[in-house]
Amino acid sequence: MLTRKSLLNKSSFLFSKLSGVDPLLHKNILAMQRLDKIFSSLTRYYPYSTFALDPASLNMVICDIIVNSRKNIVEIGSGISTVVIAKLLEMNGIEASFHSIDADEGWASLINQYLIDEGLTERCKLHYIPLSKSGSHWYDETTIANLKPAIGTIDCLVVDGPIAYLPGTKQARHGALAHFQDLLQERHSIFLDDALRPGEREVIARWKAQFGYDFKTIGSVAVHLNGSHHNIE
User: In the predicted model, is pLDDT for residue 7 greater than 90?
Assistant: First the structure.
């Protein structure tokens, strides 16, 4: 059946094709327009670099939190998305647990200062966890294990860390499910950023083999939705 949403998606795609605009770029432009209400409510401007979730991916996370009533959110790799998600929780009066993890102490301190500036420290708990000295390129396993009781369970897992573009680190993000799969609720979502890179494609294949999870790549993010859910695209 041709729904209003499918008509809008087809119209958007045709417009981008006819205008010569890359479809993904057009999708990101539309997403920024949709996210504007959150960004414009912040007290100051914050950097939005190419390392961050792109607008289309971030918008899907935001939609998932709202329409699928996510209440236990974990983000691996902090950034502007941390501030935006925390602000969403405040704006919409969503009572949720939100933990964000980062391996860069200076960066974690900076993002935490943004949360302080916006009065959002009650909406997000940011944790600096250094990488393991074992050479796994994952976070320190003991610190992660000690954090898990505070997290409790997870119904939305956003994976954008640790760094996985340097030589020898391309499968660093495999640890996200290796260490947190046991906390996932029956109804949950998983977002893996940079899903078009070879390393992340290998991670997705390993997760499929180990946990049986299927992922759909949408733009630059791979998405797994488990259990009943509403559309977030």
Answer: no
